[in-house]
Specification:
- By secondary structure, this protein is mostly beta strands.
- The protein has two domains: 285 residues, 4-Layer Sandwich (Purple Acid Phosphatase, chain A, domain 2), CATH 3.60.21; 139 residues, no CATH class.
- Strands 3, 4, 7, 8, 16, 17, 18 and 19 form an eight-stranded mixed sheet that branches.
């Protein structure tokens, strides 16, 4: 989407050092640094993804926790900032932002520079609610590598994934499979920093995207690039975006200019060149509005992207939802830049205990049916393909804790129990063939939705949302619901605990030890701790 406005440059930041914008070329990174990033990324790929089971992913712009933001927090406490964040941090989504600065004191700044951004350790608590925090940016090394390592470690202690410092990518499991996130930067503040960060024009970036693509439903590149206070992408930015997408990226999201930038579509994949600021202390009018990008995968496996406006009142630093629809044109444009996905998971599914990929593929002849394909992650070759099945939901789960993942399928199947085609829970495993371990008629009551969560001992329990009627006395219009937990007993499921609810919910989502109920694609306010069912 073309725009023509160009924001005047200012003295808010130094002219940045950046690599010349060009096609991908061999990296000038030192061999040792490159090896560290490559090995760390490879180790990450060999790990199981984080199990969040969220529905969507939200991307935010730049966050500053030093300078005037630190002073504001000291005067007013953290609660006012948390309260400002709360309307944005939807509980059914994963949240990704970019932190400008690292944990430490001003005495650690490499130069006597007012644009060095040390962050007081306690202020990282403000990032609670975010799932991923990007550290690949021009301020990552303001205090040197020890501070960058310290920041990554402190974020990890808060169960926040640091995107950067030898782990430039992360794989998150959602309701629609794995989502791969890769953080890179195209800007540095000092000569030599490019050898210690993952630069956007490094060949490693393309290799990383390709590896993620084999393992993920969707791959997003979160890139720090562009020119301060300039809302137009450079030719080099467009070239990098095209190369990322050619390598397999599905979404490009930019930060750094501190103003909202242009929206583009390359080969059917969206590019938001800059989201602007989320929490910052800049005073120019253009820096006091920005956007949050929400990425959604619909039930028909088509993507959807929506920009939500934020604004900061004059004489304030705190973001609030924009009163006007700031991005009506951009959102209309994004509706023409959507695509279908194939939900993909990774796991140990077979007795050879090799990490493999599992992909759900809609049947070409009948879209209400789908196949499962098990494939080798090294060569991409298909190992097994199931017949077409009426799959409504899929979740890998190591149901008996033997190190091999089974597959929960909820399918639309006819049963003589209620003489209806309805949702039924099936448990399958891969052992030479794809075979059912359990074929459930619907557990104890008619089923609306179900998902596995782990108890404190790491054992999976099944949480099921039922209507409150029965198979024998059916009343599908009843507004009553029953939420129930089941334990696997080796042969089937045993009911454990239940809770009666008065709610129109038809789906559930288990995120961060909470069960969220969903009706008409909206979260219902009631939250139920998972430990109620342990």
């Amino acid at each position: 989407m073309e725009t023509t406005k160009r924001v005047p440059a200012s003295g808010l930041d130094r002219p940045l050092l950046r690599r010349p914008q060009r096609a991908m070329a061999p990296s000038r990174r030192s061999g040792r640094a490159a090896a560290q990033i490559t090995l760390a990324a490879l180790a990450l790929f060999l790990c199981r993804p984080d199990r969040a089971m969220a529905q969507d992913i939200c991307f935010y712009g730049d966050v500053l926790l030093s300078r005037n933001i630190e002073s504001f927090a000291a005067r007013n406490g953290l609660s006012s900032i948390r309260a400002a964040f709360a309307p944005f941090l939807a509980k059914d989504a994963l949240h990704v932002t970019n932190l400008e600065g690292t944990v430490g004191s001003r005495s650690e700044c490499r130069r006597n520079d007012p644009l060095c951004f040390p962050v007081r350790s306690g202020l990282l608590d403000l990032l609670t609610g975010f799932d991923v925090v990007g550290l690949e940016n021009n301020h990552a090394l303001d205090l040197g590598q020890p501070a960058l390592r310290r920041t990554a470690a402190e974020l990890a202690k808060k169960n926040i994934h640091p995107l950067g410092h030898q782990t430039p990518s992360v794989v998150l499991e959602t309701a629609h499979g794995n989502i791969g996130l890769l953080g890179v930067t195209d800007t540095v503040n000092a000569q030599g920093d490019e050898r210690r960060l993952l630069m956007a024009d490094s060949p490693q970036v393309l290799a990383e995207i390709k590896r993620l693509k084999a393992r993920c439903t969707l791959v997003a590149v979160y890139v720090h690039w562009g020119r301060e206070l300039d809302n137009l992408p450079t030719a080099g930015m467009k070239q990098l975006a095209a190369q990322f997408i050619q390598a397999g990226a599905d979404l490009i999201v930019g930060t750094h200019p501190h103003v909202f930038g242009q929206v583009g579509c390359i080969q059917g994949r969206p590019v938001v060149y800059s989201l602007g600021n989320f929490l910052f202390d800049q005073k120019y009018a253009e820096t006091k509005s920005g956007a949050i990008l929400r990425c959604k995968i619909e039930a028909d496996l088509k993507t959807g992207f929506t920009l939500r406006g934020i604004e900061v009142p004059e004489n304030s630093y705190l973001p609030q939802p924009a009163k006007k629809n700031l991005f009506q044109k951009e959102n209309k444009f994004l509706t023409s830049c959507t695509f279908g996905v194939r939900p993909t998971w990774t796991g140990i599914f077979t007795p050879d205990r090799k990490l493999k990929g599992l992909r759900l593929i809609k049947d070409a002849a009948n879209p209400s049916l789908a196949h499962l394909e098990l494939f080798d992650l090294q060569d991409g070759k298909r190992k097994l393909r199931t017949p077409a099945m009426p799959i409504w939901k899929l979740q890998p789960v190591d149901i008996d804790q033997d190190g091999l993942s089974e597959i929960l399928l909820i399918q639309y199947i006819y049963s003589a129990l209620d003489n209806a085609v309805a949702k039924r829970v099936y448990i399958y495993s891969f052992n030479k063939t794809f075979h059912a371990l359990w074929r459930g008629s619907g557990l104890s009551r008619p089923l609306l939705d179900a998902a596995f969560v782990n108890n404190p001992q790491g054992m999976p329990i099944l949480i099921a949302l039922h209507t409150a009627d029965s198979f024998l006395v059916q009343n599908p219009q009843t507004p009553q619901r029953v939420l129930m937990s089941y334990h696997w007993n080796g042969f089937g499921f045993s009911g454990h605990k239940e809770r009666a609810l008065q709610t129109p919910a038809v789906r559930l989502s288990c995120i961060k030890d909470q069960i969220y109920l969903i009706a008409n694609n909206d979260l219902i306010s009631e939250e139920i701790p998972v430990d109620f069912f342990h």
